[in-house]
Specification:
The chain is of the alpha/beta class. Helices cover 27% and strands 16% of the residues. The chain is built from 14 helices and 18 strands. It has a ten-stranded mixed β-sheet with strand order 6-5-4-3-7-1-10-13-2-14, with helices on both faces. The model is unreliable at 1-56 (pLDDT under 50).
Length: 578
Amino acid sequence: MRASAARTWYAVIGVTLVVSLVLAVLTFSRGGASTSARVEPSLEGPTPTAVATDGSERPSTMPKQPNVVLVMADDMRVDDLAFAPNLRKLIAAHGVTFENSFAPFPLCCPSRASFLTGQYAHNHKVWWHDPPYGYGAFDDSRSIATSLQDAGYRTGYIGKYLNRYGLARSKVTGEPSARYVPNGWDDWRAAVEPPGESDIHGSTYDYMDTPFNVNGEIDNSYRGVYQSDVLGDMSVDMSRRFARNRKPFFMYVNYVAPHHGQPNAVDEPDFVPDSNGREVHVVTPAVPDWVRGRFDDRVRRASGVARTGEEIESDVSDKPRDLQKRVQPLGEEAKDALLYATRRRAEAVYVMDRNIARLVAELQRSGAWEETVFAFTSDNGMIMGEHGLGMTKVRAHEPSLRVPMLVTGPGLRDRQVRQDPITTVDLTATILDLADARPSHTPDGVSRVRSLVEGDEGWRTPVVTEAVFTARGSDPQFTDLRTTIGIRVSRYSYTRYKSGETELYDLVEDPREDTNVADAPEYAEVRAALDELWPAIKDCRGRGCAPPLPKVLEAGPRLNRSNTDAYWTAIDAAYGWD
C-alpha cells in the first residue's frame, strides 16, 4: 500500500488479528442501552477475485444477486473515520476504500433523494430541506427499493428518511406522511418528524426520543434510549429475520449521527463571536454520558483548523463576492466552539460505529455475510473551519463534497484502495448493477462495479456539483433554482456562480483551495475546456452526465493516483490527526 495521507484516516492494518479481536470485544462491551445479542465479528482473510465465467465484472465467489447492506451516516467527513475503529477494522481493512468519493449536492435532503432515485438534484428537483422542498417535494412512488423488489429482493429501511418526513404531506398520496410507507419496502422503520397537533413526541433529530413509523404504525416507545442504539437494535433484528429467508435482501440503514440534534448539553456553544464580533453558528449532536470526553486528549483542535492553529487562508479577495461576505476570521472563541463540536461529532461517530459492528456480527453469525455486499458512506461532508467559513456544508469545496466510501463483499475481502471517482448516484447504479436490477429512473450515475472488482480505470468522466442559495445574480444560463453548478475532475475543481463569477482550483498545487486560478493565464487551456464542457453537463440527464473528458482534463489510473496522493498528502500536512 502506498504512503498517502488518506491512509492515516483509514489505517488500522498494522494491528494484529488477535489485538483487533480483543478491541472489538472491548468495544461491544462498553456502555449503551442496547438489548440485542452481541456476537463478535470475525475478520476474514483475502479472497481471490476473478472475472466470472459468464463475462460479467464480478468476483467468481460473488452470488449473481448478493445481499446488499448500505449504512449511511449524516454530515460525516472523511477524516471522521478516525473515530470509527470497527469500520476501519471490519470493512476498510477487509474491503475497498474509495479515496475520491463525493456527494454532488452536499446537503442531506437532495443527497438522499439522489441515492433513492439515482439522479442528480436538477432531475429529481428536491432542492432543499425546507418548504416547499424537503420530503413534500419528493415522489417516492418509484425508487431503488421498487427496482430491487422487482428484481426479487426483500427490502428494509431503518432510520432517517428525507427531511420533513412525517411533517409534510406525501407527494404521492397527498395525505399526511407520518404513517405513510413508500412503495418498495417490505420492512419500514423510518424516523418521523411529528406533524403539528399530534400526540407523537420527540423527533428524528432528538437523539433521546425518536418516534418511528414501523410499517405504518407509530412506535413512540424510545424516550430515554439513545437513537443510534435503537437503530443498532433494529438493524440486528431486521438482518436476523431477513437471513432466514432464501431471497436476497437489501437493507438501507440511516444514522442521524454525527448530524446535530437534541437534547442540547448544558455546556454546548451556539452562536459565538468571531474575531470581528460577527456570529459563528456551531451545532452538535447529543451523545450519551459514557462516551463524553473519549477523544478529548486526541482532538485538540477542530477538524478544519490547521495543525498550526493559525488561519491558513489570509487573503480571500480572489473568491466570489458572496463567499467573501461569509468568510470570517474565526478567533479563539469560535475555534474553541468548533473544537467542542468536533469532539461531540467524534463521540457520536464512535457510538454509531459500535452499532454498525453489531450488525456485521449478526450478519456473520447468521451466515448471510458470505453473500453480502456491505457499504458505508455519508450523505454529505462538512466544513469545520476551512476558509474561515465556520461550520457549514452545501458549498462545492472539498470538505463539504467529500464523503467516506467503504465497500466489502464476497471476493472483496482483501484490503484495497481505489482512486476512481464515485458519487452518490454512482453508488445507486453500482448497487443496481450488482443486483441485476433495472433502475427506477433514467440513471445519471455510472456503475463502478468494474472499478470495484478489477481495479482503477482512471478519471475519465466529470462529477457534476450543484447547490442552491450560495450566490445571487442573474446569469441567464442559470435557469432553475441552482446558484452554483460545477465540474470536478481528477486535478481540478471548477464552479460557476449565478453571479457570473467562477472558481477554479488546481488540487495538486493547491489542495486546500486557497488560490482561485480561474483568470490565471497559465490555466487558460484548462479553463477553456471546462467552460466548453459546462453547458453540456449543467442540465444533463442519463448518459449525458458522463461524457468523455477532453485530454487536458482526464487522468488515467497512474496520473489519477498521483493526483490523489498529492491531494491527501497536503491535506494531512495541513489538518491531519496525529
